[in-house]
Fold this protein.
Amino acid sequence: MAKKQKEKRQSLGRILRNNVVLFGKVCRYTPELVLLSFLIEGVFLGVNNAVYGVFTLNLFNALDRGDPLEDIVKIIGLMALWYGVYFMIERIYHRVIKPNLHHKLDYHIHTELFMKTKEIDVACYDDPEFYNDFVWAMDEASSRSLKILADLNTLAARVIALVTILGTLIAADIDMVVIYVVCGMGVVGCVVNYFGNKIGYKHEKEKKPLNRKRDYLNRVYHLPDYAKEIRTGSVSDLLLREADSNNEDRVKLAKKYGIKYFLIYGIFYNVFMEAVRLGIIFYLLLRMLDGAILVGVFAASVGLIWRVEWNITDFVERVAKFPEHSLFLEKYYGFLEYEPKVVSGEVEVPAFESLELKNVSFTYDFSDKPKYQWHKSDHKKPKNENSGSADALKGIDLKIEKGEKIAIVGYNGAGKTTLIKLLMRLYDPTSGEVLYNGKSAKEYDLSAYRNKIGCVFQDYKIFATTVAENVMSGAYYEEKDAKTVEGSLEAAGFTEKLNTLKLGTKTMLTREFDKKGTNLSGGESQKVAIARVFARPYELWIMDEPSSALDPVAEYELNRSILKYAEGKTVIFISHRLSTTRMADRIYMFDSGKLCEVGSHDELMAKNGKYAEMFNLQAEKYVSQ
């Protein structure tokens, strides 16, 4: 509750700090954008607004005085020349220069976010609150920086225009009462926009989860990954119901806030402003009838006064946006300031000798307490941290020595994949420790530690790049990497498919960005993912369900190939299919997050426990091999 109140009542210092920090970042990334936008959208635009007002007043004054036609033509000619120059510069800036600079700024800001994304804990993705704020930061960062820059430039433009127009009005002997009233309208506009922006922030906050759900549904229908299931099952009906529900929620939200906007802006603000405008016109009309001002001055002054009111109102609206910017920016800063719990050590990683788990337990925390904090000052451990949690692993002890072939087996949900995430330090144990060569894995340089381990994840991903780049998991240099890529694909059993591709390893995977690309089958994609492990000098291989998309014959051939190319290396097979277990030096059987059996295939079959039960159920497929 206190935190919510803090969000509602931002201090002036907090607002300024948040906006200034982002402005400084924009200056650092694109100084040319800051300078040019200030000159064109600030100074030049402000002068243009003022020039129009001065021109109007001078033209009407000249007509009232009965000046010669050539003087009047001269005034009109100067105005035409100004507008010609202004619009030419303005068009070049907005159509040519500004878009390129916007792209440059967008690139720098998103690159910073992408780099930060690599650092955040994988556990953060299990937290819906974090994920909502993460998406918000990614969506808002670039556009919000441009909005802040635009608002700052507009403030400069409004100040320049106001100073010039007010000076012109005072010189024309306009009653100061009128100017005071117009300035008062700006104050009212400030108050209205303050409350309107607070409502706008709440609206956006409530809309974000709904938008994310809508985007998910859109993604399901346009991505090829889901095409077959949508066409062959009834899931589409379910998704359409979800879409209907999402749409209803969005409509309700729009109505809820639409009424608030209408009451604030439509009824109160507009009615008040129109009444004041009519009052000013009536007042000036009376002064003209009394002979205090000429008809031309009356007509010109009405137009100038509207410009003063519009500039003041817009100035106030821009100022009122900065608290809103500040609230949005705190999501962005919070993401950048997030301090990962899985942190790197400094010890250099030696050659692999052993990997050991000592009394390791791990709990997925599903409580409604956020597992991250946006503000460093709020880093306090929440009470009842594990309420609503679920144990994935409990009291695991195991040790893997260099050169061993290990099988970790168990039914789905037994905790096998969680174990891999702990070995890779994607998570750290809730209790116990992971030891690399007898020393805590936390003490080693994190990036170097992970570079010792090649892993084919169960939910591997194929990227929209070439076959070669997918295998190398990064840049591909043909002269240096061609033999490595081809050899790795051959070891993974992909050669037959590769021979059908006209561009070979240069073929783009997926047709999302290239019509000449190819879409692989599940088994073919899995072979490319496995080739990634063969392509790097990893000392420890982890194969998480490496043959799940293959038929039994292809699975058998792949396992033989893995063992052949893994000579001298340490390999961990993770599977609930037991075709690999007879080739393993040792088998670890998991059940409900616990290590229930350890031994060779023959030892565990003789034990006639969980492993034997699981193997016998699959014996029809594998016993003849």
About this structure: The radius of gyration is 34 Å. The chain has a mean pLDDT of 82.
